[in-house]
Amino acid sequence: MAINTEVLSARYRAASVDLEGRRLLITNFLNTEQEKDLSEPPNCGGIGRIRHFRRLVSSSWPLNPLPIDPAILALGLPSTDMIRAQVFQNAACNWRCWYCYVPFDLLRANPDYSDWLSPATLIDRYLDQPDPPPIIDLTGGQPDLVPEWVPWMMAEIKNRGLEQQIYLWSDDNLSNDYFWKFLSNADIELIATYPKYGRVCCFKGFNAESFAFNTSAEPALFDQQFELLRRLLTLGIDLYAYATFTSPSNVDIAEDMRRFVDRLQMLDENLPLRTVPLQIQEFTPVKQRLNQDIYSVLHNQQIAIEAWRHELESRYSSEERACNIASVHLYGVS
Fold it and tell me: CA 17 to CA 145: how far, in whole Å?
């Protein structure tokens, strides 16, 4: 049975935000299954982790410049192929992507593996380490179950006078309209004008079938992802996109990929140049979830990435494809 996204979103939002106290439920990684997959022990008292974003994923996959290049450009840092980020992870998600590196126990606002924390406490713990990374990454889970998190963090960073030295990065799975439903006009204005912020929106598939397979949500919500991103594009936020290409079927992948890229270009001619396909890999929780042959699913993503490459090569020049992702112009984005 498919997830009822609307019901689950409302339930997890209610369980993971304290509006009056300006707190939200943040994952504590200590003694969790996810801790086993971390390259460094949890930090910030267990509620943070250091992530090393690397440009090279594997020899068979396109380079991933996110959030490396946007952060470098925003902070005036020298070029690099790896950058450290301080990750804070909200403790709820309204979808259940089979390939998610987060154990599902950490996605249901579970009080056993989370703490109620304010942005002030998060920044305190971020600063209370020998070498704070230049990026703070707000991830999940689905951060936009609590869209207030981003402007709360921005306000706290500005209050500390740190807005010139921290690049803020957040994820969005394009699953609900809470950004507009719960944020004030002042909140949206702060997000849209905050100079050192980037937001990445993740397409969970390249057609309705792969989307439903990947998320366990209703296939129709694949279309909603495009509409939500269209609304975000009108605000002038520095936006990027991820896409996952795992699929249970290898039928008509090339044709479906052509339509997918068409739809991206309908939002903005250059949006595919700001879109990064994510290679799905086998983290510890993944091996326990997929009923069908994981190797056929991962093989299909290889077919899909070749189709993606073909579409970009047929639509953009080599110079356009080689352009720094943070310098690709979108509507409302310089």
Answer: 9
Question: pLDDT digit string (tens) for 143-194?
Answer: 999 999 999 999 999 999 999 999 999 999 999 999 999 999 999 999 999 9
What is the spatial distance between Cα 28 and Cα 43, in angstroms, rounded to a whole number?
10
Give the SS3 label for residue 79.
Answer: coil
Pairwise CA distance, residues 332 & 334, whole Å: 7
Domains in the chain: ranges and CATH: 5-327 (3.20.20.70)
- pTM check: above 0.70: yes
Q: Which residues, in sequence order, are CB contacts of 190 under 8 Å at separation 6+? A: 151, 154, 155
Cα 208 off chain centre by:
20
Residue with tokens 């309209």: 177
Q: Which helix H or strand E contains 25, and what residues bound it?
A: strand 23-27
pLDDT digits (tens, 9 = 90+) for 88-118: 999 999 999 999 989 999 999 999 999 999 9
In terms of C-beta distances under 8 Å and separation of at least 24 residues, what long-range contacts does 37-42 make, across chains too?
Answer: 37/101, 37/283, 37/284
